[in-house]
Amino acid sequence: DAMVIQNPRYQVTQFGKPVTLSCSQTLNHNVMYWYQQKSSQAPKLLFHYYDKDFNNEADTPDNFQSRRPNTSFCFLDIRSPGLGDAAMYLCATSTWDRASSYEQYFGPGTRLTVT
Amino acid sequence: SQQGEEDPQALSIQEGENATMNCSYKTSINNLQWYRQNSGRGLVHLILIRSNEREKHSGRLRVTLDTSKKSSSLLITASRAADTASYFCATDARNNRLAFGKGNQVVVIP
C-alpha cells in the first residue's frame, strides 16, 4: 500500500545532541511537510518542500533544518535540541498544483524525547 | 498561524448518538479539511470541502461550510467507540499550507 513512513517512531536524544528524523513516501507526491505537535495542541507547520523548493515558516527556529534529497525522502534535522523541542513530529505529503489543492497524508509520527 | 478554532473542545457521548463539532476561521480560504487523530498517532484525512461547496457527506460524516460566517461543522452520526479520537479542522488559504485548529477530543462511551 502507498504510504508515508517515519523512522524512528520513538527517539530519545540528549540536550544539545543533534538528531535527525526521517520520512519516506511511496505516494510520489510533490509536496512534503514537517509539523511539530506538542501534547494536546494542534500540529504546527515547520516547513515544506514543493518539489525541491524549500519553504520555511517565519516562526520556525533556526535550530530546525530540513533536507529533501529526492522525491521519496525528507529529513528533519534538529541541530541542538532543547527541552522545549520534545514533541511529536509529523511528516505529511500532498499533491499540489496551481489549480487546486488536496488532502495531506500523514505518517504515524516520531515522538522525540529530550533528556 | 492557527486559523481554525473548534468548539467545543471536549465531547463525551454514548455510542449511537450523534456528535457535532464546529470550527471558525478568520480569513478567506480555498478549502477546509477535517482530520482525525487517534491518541499518539498521525492524522487521518476525513473530508475536504471547497469554498464553493456548502455541504459534503462521506459515510457517517457530514460537513457543512458557511463562508459568509467563516464557519464549518462536522457531524458524526451513529457514533461508535472507534470514533473516539481528536478531530481537527484545517484551513487552506490557496497555497496548500494548512492551518490547524486546536482540536476536539471526542470520547464515545460503549
Describe the structure.
With 115 residues, chain A is mainly beta. Chain A is built from no helices and 13 strands. In chain A, strands 2, 4, 5, 6, 9, 12 and 13 form a seven-stranded mixed beta sheet that branches. A four-stranded antiparallel beta sheet of chain A has the order 1-3-8-7, with no helix packed on it. In chain A, strand 7 (64-67) and strand 8 form a beta hairpin. Chain A is globular, with a radius of gyration of 14 Å. The N and C termini of chain B lie far apart (37 Å). Chain B is globular and about 40 Å long. In chain B, the strands form two sheets. In chain B, strands 2, 4, 5, 9, 10 and 11 form a six-stranded mixed beta sheet that branches. Chain B has strands at 5-7, 10-14, 19-24, 31-37, 43-50, 55-58, 61-66, 71-76, 85-92, 98-100, 104-109. Classes of the chains: A mainly beta (115), B mainly beta (110). The interface between A and B is medium-sized, with 27 and 25 residues.
The chain-level mean pLDDT of chain B equals: 90
Q: In whole angstroms, how far apart are the ends of chain B?
A: 37 Å
The low-pLDDT segments of chain A are none
Helix content of chain A: under 10%
Q: Share of helix among residues of chain B?
A: under 10%
Shape field of chain A: globular
User: pLDDT under 50 segments of chain B (min length 5)?
Assistant: none
Radius of gyration of chain A: 14 Å
What is the averaged pLDDT score of chain A? 94
Sheet/helix structural class of chain B: mainly beta
Q: Main interface pair?
A: A-B, 27 and 25 residues
What is the multimeric organization of the chains shown?
heterodimer
* N-to-C series of helices and strands of chain B: EEEEEEEEEEE
- The percentage of residues in β strands of chain B lies in over 45%
Proportion of beta-strand residues of chain A: over 45%
Q: What is the tally of beta strands of chain B?
A: 11
Series of H and E elements of chain A? EEEEEEEEEEEEE
Look at the helices and sheets of chain A and give the structural class. Answer: mainly beta
